[in-house]
């Protein structure tokens, strides 16, 4: 059945209105993907309680729910593909697409780091824009504010200009709350949180380890 989900607020809380051919009974964690012009939007949320139900004369059923832990990710791959057509001259289109999608936040940091060789090395005397990814000593860094690079401003030396996104030497990085599309953890991602090692059970994981979507890693045997 086709349903339409409209997110809003009621007082200080968040709500979702579900419209469809029949009434729904939602509970627990939910994931909803809806298509819009130029993008695909995925909402993940937890249902706190059902508020009310209604119907109109056309036979449409409406259900309102109070929700929390709401995260939204927008996949704008079609727009990135348009940029590929403009920038792929003389370069393997797939590699350019991968880099542009990573810089647009459509590819998670771990996956981008596994293909760090596709990204250009950091260099001095270059105008960098926020969001661009560059390699430095095998690690991958994201530019966090526009600037013209210079000697002494290598990414590892200027945390106000560059953020480390992937270090191949770090097997269990500290978990951080995903803040935007493409920042989610993929299935199998390994992190440390609260002094415990965790492995992601799902793709697009935005939840905190210990809350949902993560399993504790088995400690390695000393034998």
Could you give the topology of this structure?
Elements: E1 4-10, E2 13-20, E3 28-36, E4 39-55, E5 61-75, H1 77-87, H2 93-103, H3 109-114, E6 127-128, E7 133-136, E8 139-143, E9 147-148, E10 162-166, E11 190-193, E12 196-200, E13 214-216
Antiparallel strand pairs: 1-2, 2-5, 3-4, 4-5, 6-9, 7-8, 8-10, 11-12, 12-13
Helix pairs in contact: 1-2
Model description:
The protein has 223 residues and is mainly beta. The chain folds into 4 domains: 4-75, no CATH class; 76-107, no CATH class; 120-167, Ribbon (Seminal Fluid Protein  PDC-109 (Domain B)); 171-218, Seminal Fluid Protein  PDC-109 (Domain B), CATH 2.10.10.20. Helices cover 13% and strands 39% of the residues. It has helices spanning 77-87, 93-103, 109-114; strands at residues 4-10, 13-20, 28-36, 39-55, 61-75, 127-128, 133-136, 139-143, 147-148, 162-166, 190-193, 196-200, 214-216. The strands form 4 sheets. Strands 1-2-5-4-3 form a 5-stranded antiparallel beta sheet. The chain has a 3-stranded antiparallel beta sheet with strand order 7-8-10.
Outline:
With 223 residues, the protein is mainly β. The protein has helices at residues 77-87, 93-103, 109-114, and strands at 4-10, 13-20, 28-36, 39-55, 61-75, 127-128, 133-136, 139-143, 147-148, 162-166, 190-193, 196-200, 214-216. The chain has a five-stranded antiparallel sheet.
């Amino acid at each position: 059945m086709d349903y339409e989900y409209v997110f809003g607020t009621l007082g200080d809380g968040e709500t979702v209105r579900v419209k469809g051919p029949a009434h729904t009974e939602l509970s627990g964690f939910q994931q909803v993907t809806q298509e819009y012009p130029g993008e695909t939007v995925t909402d993940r949320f937890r249902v706190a309680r059902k508020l009310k139900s209604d119907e109109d004369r056309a036979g449409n059923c409406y259900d309102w729910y109070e929700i929390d832990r709401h995260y939204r990710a927008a996949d704008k791959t079609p727009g990135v593909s348009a940029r590929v057509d403009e920038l792929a001259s003389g370069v393997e289109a797939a590699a350019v697409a991968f880099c542009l999608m990573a810089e647009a936040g459509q590819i998670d940091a771990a996956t981008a780091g596994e293909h760090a060789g596709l990204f250009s090395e950091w260099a001095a005397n270059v105008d960098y824009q926020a969001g661009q990814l560059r390699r430095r000593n095998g690690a991958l860094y994201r530019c966090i504010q526009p600037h013209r690079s210079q000697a002494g401003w290598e990414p590892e030396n200027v945390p106000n200009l560059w953020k480390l996104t992937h270090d191949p030497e770090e097997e269990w990085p500290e978990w951080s709350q995903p803040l935007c599309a493409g920042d989610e953890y993929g299935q199998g991602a390994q992190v440390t949180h609260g002094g415990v090692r965790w492995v992601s059970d799902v793709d697009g994981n935005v939840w905190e380890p210990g809350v949902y979507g993560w399993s504790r890693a088995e400690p390695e045997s000393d034998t």
